[in-house]
Every structure is written in structure tokens, then in C-alpha cells.
Amino acid sequence: MTTPQQDHLTRIAAPQGVAPGTGYNHVVWGTGRFVAVSGQVAFDEKGELVGEGDAAAQARQVFENLSRCLAAAGAAFEDVVKLTYFVTDVAHLPAVRVARDEVLAPDRLPASSAVQVSALFRPELLMEIEAFAIVPERTGPQPGSGFGTGFGTGFKTGFAS
Predict the structure, then answer these.
(1) Which residue, 11, 27, 22, 143, is CA-closest to 78?
(2) Listed residue (10, 45, 26) closest to 134, CA to CA
(3) CA triplet 35, 8, 75: central angle to 5 degrees?
(4) CA nearest 135: which of 2, 9, 4?
(5) 77 pLDDT exceeds 80?
(6) Are the CB atoms for 111 and 13 separated by under 8 Å?
(7) Residue 28: pLDDT over 50
(8) Which of 37, 52, 98, 122 is the most buried if burial means most Cβ atoms within 10 Å?
(9) pTM, to two decimals
(10) Per residue in 35-56, pLDDT tens?
(11) Directed axis angle between helix 55-72 and helix 93-103, to 10°?
């Protein structure tokens, strides 16, 4: 079943011959500008851990960080086509889903992968989540790009050609 949700993205929950996923779409594609957001962890803007030992608090902070990173690229959660979850225990996934569902509509879920890892780069971290998005092409400077602010020639300005 193919369900277009927006002009630039198409989501397929269950391609022919594939069982439907629960809480994700198997395939998402679109047209526009590709945005990759590095894995985010539960650090606040000062670099301090939020929610030590608390998967729900860490998940909320991770999604807040993802939101800020997406916004810096002129994107939002509705533009996300893929989320990859790295968790130190799959028992944290329900907390991740609750935090995800606070920012993503159930009819706009991205493709997803979840991987249990033995550890992240600091032992108190319970999860790391990365995102890929496709943003529709827009004219004018892109939010957070820093372009179109007086740079000399040879730099991309963010304006459509």
C-alpha cells in the first residue's frame, strides 16, 4: 500500500509480499534536499547528561536534540525518512517510541532500524538516535544555513537557480 503523506515524501507501510511493520514504514522516498543528522544522545546544550538511568528522560532529550539539529537544516520531523536507534537494552524501546510519538504523527512514521549495542561512548548513555530527512526544495536562504549573509562569490547562497 502506497500512501503519499506530503508533496515531497511517499511512505509504503507494507510493500507487496512484506508483512506490515509496527510503528514504522518499510519504505520512504522523496524529492528534495537530503539531510543527515548524526547520532544524538541525551546531553543538554551545556553538554550535561539528562536523565541518568532514566530511558524516558534520555529519549525526550534525544528527540529534542534531533529537533534542533533538523531545524538548523531547515527540516522538521515531518521530513524524516529514516531513524536508526542504537540502544544498550531493547527494553528501552518503549520509552523511545513514546518520545518519538510526541513528535511524529502516526501516519508520517519514517523507515526505522533498532539495534541493541553492548555500549555507547559513555557508560551512562542508554541510547543514540540518528536521522535522515528529505526537505522539499525552497527558494531563498535556508534556515540555519548561514548562507545569503554577505559571503563573496563562489559560495552557494541557498537561492534556487
Answers:
(1) 11
(2) 10
(3) 35
(4) 9
(5) yes
(6) no
(7) yes
(8) 37
(9) 0.81
(10) 999 999 999 999 999 999 999 9
(11) 40
135 Rama sector, left if φ>0, alpha if ψ -120 to 50, beta otherwise: beta
Whether 57 contacts 44, CB under 8 Å = no
**For the chain, what's the residue count?**
161
- Please state, in angstroms and rounded to a whole number, the distance separating the CA atoms of residues 131 and 98: 17
- In one-letter notation, the amino acid at residue 114 is A
Chain Cα centroid distance, residue 64: 10
Residue from 86, 96, 97, 94 nearest 127 by CA: 86
pLDDT bracket for residue 78 (50, 70, 90):
very high
C-alpha cell at 34: 537530503
Q: How far is CA 7 from the centre of its chain?
A: 19
How many CB atoms neighbour CB 1 within 10 A?
A: 10
